[in-house]
Write a structure and sequence with these properties.
globular; 5-stranded mixed sheet; about 15% strand
Length: about 450
């Protein structure tokens, strides 16, 4: 009898232990609260907050998980707060249980031992459902998965189709020309002359055709399209043939006024009709206004066309892989397990598509990029989002995606590069315009190039 009782007691204890272990300490009647930070704004914030509410009312209520959301005003502000935590600064907030962040921020936190290895929260089979390149980008330090893809982005070509069609009808430029950067540069020459002719009393006052939101990204991807690396040993390689292709594409056109020289996003220039097309993140689609307000205060409704990212002639179809993911704090086992449940729910194909269908982001699973997305597109009210997702499906099939290198100081390098290149173009543009008063355009440009020292394009080695 005693033996039987011992067996029963042992079985009961084992059952209770394994039950608790399976739930990793989660108790529906005593829910655990997870803090979640994100830097989404506008429609993205509303969608994210609604989905968190739904999680709390369904899966969260069933499992014993409550997400408490804090919205941070910008990615820069979020990065600053996380760096305060990493550095142990006085007044630093507590580390959130889950937060959006990019790999550059995650690397610093991982080095401090503040992040959970998400490989421990997903099985190999579960991870195989996600786009491999998206998972790869989140692997840092000894190949540990620290940043989980929740919504990614790439870069595309945004085009004011309404204004472009008028221009194309009179000049013969086609959409085919916009598939390459060289074609864009040639179209920009025609557009400058075409718009200059509209103001015959003011010679040399044509309009810019194109703007790149990030010259640093354009240089990286352009070089990669041409089978070369822009960054070598942590520094830009400006002597390569691929970089020369990028440089002459941008510098020559900017100096002559064919491309905009602007420290900001192209969507701001597009709103006033100052440019016709631009390359930038898919996440920027929400910032393009359907109504163009020209400098003379006239307005026009314009259709936004979204085309695949251009390539340099002879180059491969490669585009930048962008976007942040979510990190999980290296806290208690229960909280880590609960965070994993949320990430699986949020990135399931159905839920992930709901999120990206109201934003400019891309889904993160192979299944979501297939028939599911094609069906979801037809249900989306926003025409720009529909157009964007159709282009994204095309690029997912035909393009490779470039993951930029990750190392300490790359943010400073990027800022220095963008600022230096713009300043050189600005100075050369001013010199070129001044010389036009005394010599022909071609001669003026040759003079500017002669005076300009290419070796000082970026003085980042000091």
């Amino acid at each position: 009898m005693k033996k039987f009782l011992y067996i029963m007691v042992f079985a009961l204890v084992f059952f209770l232990f394994t039950s608790c272990n399976d739930d990793h300490g989660l108790k529906p009647k005593e829910p655990v609260t997870l803090s979640l930070w994100h830097n989404y704004g506008g429609q993205m914030k509303e969608t994210m907050d609604n989905m968190v509410d739904e999680f709390n009312e369904t899966v969260g209520a069933e499992k014993g998980i409550i997400l408490s959301v804090t919205s941070i005003s910008s990615s820069a502000a979020l990065h600053e707060k996380l760096m305060m935590i990493a550095n142990g600064d006085p007044g630093a907030p507590e580390m959130p249980d889950i937060t959006t962040a990019n790999p550059k921020t995650a690397l610093i936190l991982a080095e401090k031992g503040l992040l959970a290895n998400l490989d421990d929260l997903f099985t190999e089979k579960e991870l195989s459902a996600y786009v491999p390149r998206f998972i790869e980008e989140g692997r840092l330090e000894s190949d540990h998965l620290y940043v989980f893809p929740t919504a990614k982005s790439t870069e595309v070509l945004f085009l004011n189709r309404t204004a472009f069609d008028r221009f194309a009808a009179e000049t013969g430029v086609t959409y085919e020309d916009l598939k390459t950067f060289e074609g864009i540069a040639k179209a920009a020459v025609l557009y400058y002359d075409w718009t200059d002719a509209k103001t015959p009393d003011v010679s040399g006052d044509g309009k810019a055709f194109y703007h790149a939101d990030s010259l640093f990204n354009l240089a990286q991807v352009g070089c990669r399209q041409l089978d070369e690396d822009f960054i070598k040993d942590g520094m830009p390689e400006i002597s390569s043939g691929a970089f020369q292709r990028f440089w002459h594409f941008y510098y020559d056109s900017a100096v002559k006024g064919h491309f905009a020289i602007f420290d900001g996003y192209a969507s701001d220039l597009a709103k006033t009709g100052e440019i016709l097309c631009s390359t930038g993140s898919t996440a920027g689609v929400l910032f393009f206004d359907p109504v163009i307000t020209y400098p003379d205060n006239t307005t026009e409704t314009a259709e936004l066309m979204i085309l695949p990212y251009p390539t340099f002639e002879g180059g491969k179809k490669i585009a930048m892989q962008r976007g942040s993911g979510m990190m999980v704090a290296n806290t208690t086992e229960t909280k880590r397990y609960a965070a994993g449940i949320f990430l699986k729910w949020f990135t399931s194909p159905e839920n992930n598509l709901r999120f990206v269908s109201s934003t400019g982001y891309l889904p993160v699973t192979d299944e979501a990029f297939g028939d599911m997305m094609s069906k979801e597109i037809e249900q989306i009210d926003n025409q720009n989002i529909r157009t964007l997702l159709k282009t994204s499906i095309e690029m997912q099939k035909e393009y490779d995606f470039y993951i930029p290198p990750l190392f300490a100081g790359i943010d400073v390098l990027q800022d220095n590069f963008n600022n230096e290149i713009r300043q050189k173009a600005t100075d050369s543009r001013a010199a070129y315009r001044s010389l036009l008063t005394e010599m022909a355009p071609d001669a003026a440009f040759e003079q500017v190039k002669t005076d300009f020292n290419m070796e000082k394009v970026i003085e980042l080695n000091e």
